Amino acid sequence: MKTLTSLPPIVHTYKYPGTFYILSTSIPWLFWFIAGYVSHITPYQDKYLNIASLIAFIGLLAPVLVSYFLISKQPDLKQDVLNRFFNFREVNLKYFLLACLIMPISIMIAMFISVTQGYDASQFIITGNFTFDSGVFPVWFLLILAPVIEELAWHSYGTDSLRSKFNLFNSSLIFGLFWGIWHLPLSTIRDYYQSNVIESGWIYGLNFLLSIIPYVILMNWLYYKTGRNILITIIFHITAGLFNELFAPHPDSKIIQTVLLLILAVVVMIRNKKLFFDKI
C-alpha cells in the first residue's frame, strides 16, 4: 500500500491557529477552574464532585465546538474532515497496528524494567480498579469518550492549523506545550487523574507534562502517515489512557515509559526527516 507523506494543499486552508488555540484554552479553563472550586465544597463532597464533573465535561466539549465553528462555514473543510474518517484504501495497515500497540507495549516493557529493579510484579495484575474518580461518569466511559471528543478537535482543525504555518516537528512541540497547559486546571478538581498525579509528587506531575512531547510526536507521525486519518489518533489516544488504568503501573514505571517513548520518537524522526523537518 502507498505511504502517505506529502502535505495536501487543503491543509493550508486551516489558517486560524491563534483563534483555535486561544478559544480552546480559555473556555475549558473557565469551566475547569469552576469545577475545581465546586469539587472541594463541603459537606456532601460526593454530590459536589458529581456536579463538578458535569461542569468539567462542558469544558471538555469546548475545543470540538470551536473546531466546528471554524469549519462549518467552509464546505471544502467540512468535506475534508468527513473524508478523513474513511480514508482507509491507501493506508498501510501497519500504522493502525502501531496505533493499537505502541502505548500498551511501552507500558508493559516499562513495568517489566521496573520489576527487574525491585518494583512489585503486581503491576501486571488487572485489578479492575481505577486510580482516579470522574464524578457522575464511569471512569471507563470517560477513558473512551474523552479521547474521541478531544481528537475531534485536535485533529480535525488544531494540528493542521499549526501545520499550515510550521513544519511537523515544530507543530508537534507547539501543540505539546499547549496540551500540557490545557490540562493544568484539571489538577484542581478533586480526585481527578491530574489532581492525583500532582499529589503523588512533583516529579510525577513533571513527567506527565514531559511525556506529552514524545506522545504527540508519535501520534502526529501516525496521523500524517495515514493520510491525516482522524480515527487513528482516536485509537492511539484511547490506548494511552486505557492501558495505564487497565494495569496498575507504579508511577516510576510511567517515567520509564516516557523515556521509552522519547527514544522511539527520536528514532521515528531520524527515519522520517523529510516528514518532520521539511518546510511546508
Low-confidence sequence ranges: none
Mean pLDDT: 93
Alpha-carbon Rg, integer = 19 Å
Structural class: mainly alpha
Helix content: over 70%
Instruction: Give the helix tally.
Output: 11
Euclidean distance between termini CA atoms = 25 Å
SSE sequence, one letter per element: HHHHHHHHHHH
Q: How would you classify the quaternary structure?
A: single chain
Shape: globular
SS elements, strand count:
0
Largest beta-sheet details:
none
The portion of residues forming beta strands comes to under 5%
Verbal overview:
The chain has 280 residues and is mainly α. It has eleven helices and no strands. The protein has helices at 17-39, 45-72, 75-83, 93-116, 139-163, 168-183, 193-200, 202-225, 230-246, 251-271, 273-277. The longest helix is centred in the N-terminal third of the chain and has 28 residues, at 45-72.
Short descriptors:
single chain; 280 residues; mainly alpha
Question: What's the gist of this structure?
Answer:
The protein has helices at 17-39, 45-72, 75-83, 93-116, 139-163, 168-183, 193-200, 202-225, 230-246, 251-271, 273-277. The protein is mainly alpha-helical.
Q: How are the secondary structure elements laid out?
A:
Elements: H1 17-39, H2 45-72, H3 75-83, H4 93-116, H5 139-163, H6 168-183, H7 193-200, H8 202-225, H9 230-246, H10 251-271, H11 273-277
Helix pairs in contact: 1-2, 2-5, 4-9, 4-10, 5-6, 5-9, 6-8, 7-8, 8-9, 8-10
